[in-house]
Model the fold of this input.
Amino acid sequence: MKNEELIIDCDGHILEPPDLWEKYLDPKYRDRAMRIRVGDDGFEYLEIDRKRAKMTAPGLLGSLGGMGKKVEDARKLRESAMRGDTKPEQVRMLAPKPENTYLKGAAFGTMVMKERLELLNKEGMAKSVLYPTIGLLWEAELFDAELSAAYCRAYNRWIADFCRDSGGRLIPIAHLSLGDPAEAARELERAVKDGCKGAFVCPFTITRVPHGDPRHDAVFAAAQDLGVPLAIHPTFEPASFGIHHRYDNFGWAAWYYDLFAGQGVQHAFGTFFQFGVFDRFPKLRTVVLESQAGWIGYFLDRGDAIFNGTTLGASVRLKEKPSYYFKRQCYISADPDERTIAAMMEIVGEDKFFWATDYPHPDHPGNYLEELKGMIAPMKESGRRAILGENVARAYQLI
Done:
C-alpha cells in the first residue's frame, strides 16, 4: 500500500474487561451481571445471568485473542493432523489448559486504547471500526429481552469510553438486541449521542421475528434519522436456530463449520429484501460484516432473477429489483484473502466494498496486510482507494 492511501479496518475487535458488566450495568441488574468465573475443572467459563454458559467450551475464553498464531504454526498443526499425530477432533480446541486464561490470551491492543493506536501506527492504518468479543457470545444464551437490552447498554457505554480519547481513530459501534425493538431504538439514539457511529445486530432474533419484519421498524427509523449505518455481524447462534443439524457426530469439523459460518448473516440480510425494508427506509445504510463478500454476486443475480422472472417475485415487497437497493444503500466487508473482489467490483460497484482484519480473533489469519496487498493488486486505482478506506469513511461519515 502507498503511504498516502487512507486505510481503515472496518471490523476490528476488542476484548472486553472481565468486570465490564459489573461496572457499567444498570444498578438494577448488577446481581445478574455477566462475569468470567473459574469452574471445578480449573477452566474459566462465562456466566450469563447467574448461569454457566453452555456454548463456551473449556479453553475458549483463553483463545479469543489468538490471532497472534503464525501461518507457519497453522501449517505445522495441519501436517501433524495429516500424519495422525493430532486427531481431527483435537484441532478445534487443541490441548486447552486452565492456565491459558482470558487475560493472558489478550493480544496487544485489545484491552488498552493507547496500545491499539500503536498498532494502527505500526500497520499504517488511519482508523479502526471496533466490535466486541464476549458480546458475540452471550446473546445466543439469553432470551430475556430486558436483560439483553441492559447488557447492550453496559457494553455501549464502555466502548464509547474506550474510544473517546483516541482522536477519532477508534470508532465505537453500538450493540443492539432486537428482543425489544422500541428499547433498541432508544438505545441507538443514546449511544450515538455518546459517540457511537453506528450499530450492529446479530444474525438471529430471540423472538424469531425476521430481521426485516415491520415490527423492527423503530430501529430502522432511528438509524435512518440519525444517519448511522446498521450492520449485521455474525455471533454465536442458538443451536436450535442454526443450519448445522443435518449430520450426526460432526461437531469436530471446525473447517467445515467456519466455511459456512457466514450463512446466518446472509439469511438475516435476505429478510431486508423480502420485507421491503429499503423501500420503507430509502436512506437506511446497511452493512454486511464478516461473512466474506464474494457471494454477493450470486445473491444479487439470483435475487433479481426470481424477482423479475418468476411468480416467486410476487412475495417480495419491493418496487425495484434487489440489486437496485443494494447499490443504493448497502455495503459488504471482504476478507483480505478473497481474490474475487476486483472482478466483483466491476459488476456490483467499487463503492460497495470494505475490508477488515477481524483482529485479534483466531478464526482469521494474522497476515492480513500481506493478503490485502494481493487482494487489491488487480484493482483499478479508484477501486483500491475505495476498498482500503474511502468507502467505510463515507458510509460512517468519518471524514
